[in-house]
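From the shared-data thread, chain only:
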Amino acid sequence: MRVSDRPAPRLHPASRPRPAGDEELISWWYDHLPRAARNVPYLEHQGRAYTAREVKAEVARGTELGKVFRERFLRHYRERAPHAYRVRFQGRTIESPVPGIYGGWRKGGIYGRLDCGSGKRILPENRVFFLTLEDAVQEGYRACKCCHPEKGPFRQE
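Structure, as tokens:
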């Protein structure tokens, strides 16, 4: 079978962009957890360990505990990837309320998933972030051959 005869790859359902709202972001995070990780202790509060499933439920209910979880989650999330808030979207650099899903190498014109080993070696000053796959392609970047970002933003192992 020739490469041109192959059907175009379907986008993984996880490749939808991250939502802008905080509650939607937590829901998005939960949906991308492997099923086995949802019932594993994730967050500790006042001596009790809560699973990801319990964290999501408390946030959805809007309880006081849910508000604590929401603030801790968002603080942790923003501290881990503060550089990802400047992203390329529809041909311009914007300040995004959520980090970009895809990372790119400015000098090489390659984009890929943020968990790709090749992408982790890119110097910070040469990185660019994209909210969607379409934005990366529109900017003229090609897909990484190591992580195949067209299959989704995160590896499902």
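The first strand starts at residue 41 and ends at 45.
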